[in-house]
Structure formats: C-alpha cells, structure tokens
Amino acid sequence: MPKGNKELHDLGTLTTEKSSTVEDNIALLRELVSHLRQNRTQLRQEWARRITEAKLLTAMSQEEIFTEATAVYDNYVEALETGTFEALQAYARNLSERIIPRGVETHEVIGIVLLLRDVLARSLFAKYQHDFALLFRILDAYEPAANRIANTVSVGFVQERERTIRQQQEAIRELSTPVLQVRERLLILPIIGVIDPQRSRQLTEQLLRGIRTNRAKVVVIDITGVAAMDSNVANALVQTVEATRLLGATVIVTGLSPEIAQTLVTIGVDLAKMNTVGDLQGGIEEAERLLGYKVVPISETAQLA
Amino acid sequence: MEVPILKQGSYLIATFQAALTDEDLLKLQDALVMQVGKYRSRGVIIDVTALDVMDSFAARTLRSLAYMVRLRGADTVIVGIQPEVAFAMVQLGLTLESVRIALDLEEGLAIMDQRTKTGKGLALVDQRAKRGVLREK
User: Which of A219, A247, A295 should one mutate to test binding to chain B, selecting the residue with the greatest count of B CBs within 10 A?
Assistant: First the structure.
C-alpha cells in the first residue's frame, strides 16, 4: 500500500492540498461529464463512424451498432460521473450475452471500447487545446476512469464468453456418453470423438453407475467413432475395464480401427485383459452368448414347436 | 469391530458393516480360513457394500484370503464393491486379480450355485443351463 503510506506521511503537511486536489478532481470529472453530455449526439456518431471504418462488429447491422453505441455511451458517462461500475458491468454482461452467439470476437469488443476512449480524449484535446495545464488535469481525472471502464467491459466480455464455453462443454460432455441397455443385463457404451482424461473419467463413472443401476453383467464398449488413441487414452480404457470387473461385469471392446490397433501394438499397451471383437454386431452377439441368449429366426422356432 | 460370519447352507457369508482396521481384517481372514474347513463350506462370499473406501492393505488381504480359501478347497466371491470404490481402486492399481467378483450378494450366490453345480465354473452365469436345471427340479 504505497499510496496509503504516502498519505500517512503527508498527513501533517499536505492535508489541505490533498483534499483540495480530490475536490478538484471531482469538479473536473463533473465538468468532463457535462461536456460529454452536451456533445452526446456528435460524439456518439463519431464513435459509430469510427467503428464502421475500422471494420469492427461486422456481424451487426449499422442500426444495431448505433443503438448499442448509444447505450454504451450513456453507461460510460454514467460510470465516469458516479465512479461506480456495477451498472456498466451488468450492461456489459448483458451485451456480451447477446453478441457472443453472433460471433463477435474479443478483439472487436476491446477495439470498440478503446475507440470510444480515443474519441472522447480527442474531443477533450479539441476543447482544451488553448489551456494545456487544464487539459492535463482533465486528462489526469479522465484517464484512470476511462481505463478502468475499458478494463471492466473487456473482462466482462471474456468472462461471459468463458462461461458460455464452459456451459457448452458440460452439455456436450453429458450428451456424449450415453450408457444404453440393449437387453436385460447387457449395456452398450458407444464412444464418439476425442477422449481426454476428463472425459474418460466421466465415462468410467457413468458406466459404473449404469452397471449398478441396471445390474449389468456384460458391457460392450464401441470405439468405432474414436479416431485416434494415445497411450493415456488406452490406459484409461484398461482402467475402465478393470473397474468394471470390480463390479462383477465383463467388458467387450469393439470397433478398433486398423490405425488404432497399430498404434496400440506399437506403443505396447497391455490389452491382454481386454476382450475385443471386430464390430458392434459381433460384440453384441458375443455378449448374448455370454448371457446365454440365442437369437433364432421365427421360422425356426415355429419348426421346433 | 468384528465381522459377523454367517453360515448359509454350504456357504459362508461375511458382511462388512464399516471400515475395518488392519487387525480386524487379519482376524477375519483367520476366522474364515479356519471355518471353511470346520463347516466343510464350498464357498465364501464377502460383502463389502458398506465400504466407501478400500485401501491397499484391505485389497491385498482380500486377495490372499481368496487364495487361502482356494487352497482349503472352496471358492471366494467378493460382492458389492461401490462404483466410486472401484474407480479409486483401479487408480491405485488394486485390481484384485484372479479373484471372483460379483455385483451384489444375490449375484454372488448365483455364481456360487453355478460353480458348485457344474463343477468347474464359468465366469458368467449361463442362463440356459440355469433354466435347464430349474426345469429338472
């Protein structure tokens, strides 16, 4: 806290000067805000023009940009005036929620906020060009607040984006590991796509829970949809098979592609404990055999009867 | 805490009520290996449904228990390992190799019946054979 220490040191001698600069600052900000309010229309248009010029927010129409620009402008001025960022933060979050699905990128959002900052700073330069001392003091008041606003909006956007991504990841993960019962005591687990450690863990957990609830005896894991496999994934698969055995069930792995078979043999993963069958059909037939089922055409059963 | 050992027909059933100390586990092992001979049991079922954690000592003791029981002429089935416990065990490399495992007590008894009736048993219950046996009765 260097600032606090300094203030403590200066307390005796500089109190009056200090409080006067703070008051000064507030007065300057007030002046600044009234300036921005007066020139609202013009500055807003200038900003929107510069956004279009810089080819930002191409996903949005001209009118939309203008409407959003107006709202951001007003929130911006308000944040400058009150020094509180909650309203702006909430608006930034709301805006992000609306524009993220339309493919607006992070650099665009940061770009437009910085543009606004530039536009406003230029208007200040234009207004106070005759009095440099006053201009500097105005900028001293303006810059920290403006930077903080830019920061708040950008961070809000990125956070919102991350939240969206997390949500989608979760949804995909939930959907991507269906454990299905095809016959009494027989489950199938089709795996499609890339398996990362987190997914393989979730897969195993879901499978084990499925075995418990369905009282399964045989599980067919079909990996036709898995494009590639490294030693980590292969080991995770071996672990899944072992954990399944601890619940008293048997695993049959099906659909190993030639590439995967080659990689597995080359990297030397021990798949001896695994029961593998060529395709899903073969796997289910093998499982039925283990469970004591036999599929017989109706004509044959009629003959038997 | 002692683990109660119940005699059910030609089987012995030991049900864990809570996590056991190493000493309790060894006591259980001794008692079971002794009683298998005493009651001329054909099988031992160990129910660990109540366990929410299984450490390496417990896993090793269960494995050696199964081997000892086999040498005394009976089979062992461990039943009721919880999904979370199974997952943790695999990550610790405790896979209870070559020990028979079943989902729950009911399943364990079915496997035992299967094995004792058909002599050399199968890993899985053969439903057709089971139905055949039922019909003969």
Answer: A247
Nearest to B103 among A242, A247, A290 (CB): A247
B-chain residues within 8 Å CB-CB of A243? 83, 86-87, 89-90
By Cβ distance, the residue of B85, B101, B128 closest to A245 is B101
Q: CB count, 10 Å around CB of A245?
A: 21
Q: Which of B84, B94, B124, B134 to mutate to test the interface with A (most CBs of A within 10 A)?
A: B124
Q: Is residue B116 situated within a structural domain?
A: no
Q: Which of B87, B127, B130 sits opposite A204 (nearest CB)?
A: B87
Domain-embedded: residue B121: no
pLDDT value at position B31?
92
Residue B135, domain member (yes or no): no
The letter for the amino acid at B112 is M
pTM of the model: 0.58
Question: What is the block-wise mean pLDDT of chain B (137 residues), using blocks of 10 residues?
Answer: 88 90 91 91 93 91 91 91 93 88 92 72 47 44
Chain A residues whose CB is inside 8 A of the B107 CB are: 215, 248
The total domain count for chain B is 1
- Where residue B28 sits, what CATH number does that domain have? 3.30.750.24
Task: For each of the domains in chain A, give its residue range(s) and CATH number, in order of start.
Answer: 2-170 (1.10.490), 180-304 (3.30.750.24)
Q: Contact A239/B124, CB-based, under 8 Å?
A: no
B53 domain-assigned: yes
The domain of B19 spans 5-108
Segment B5-16, tens digit of pLDDT = 999 988 999 999
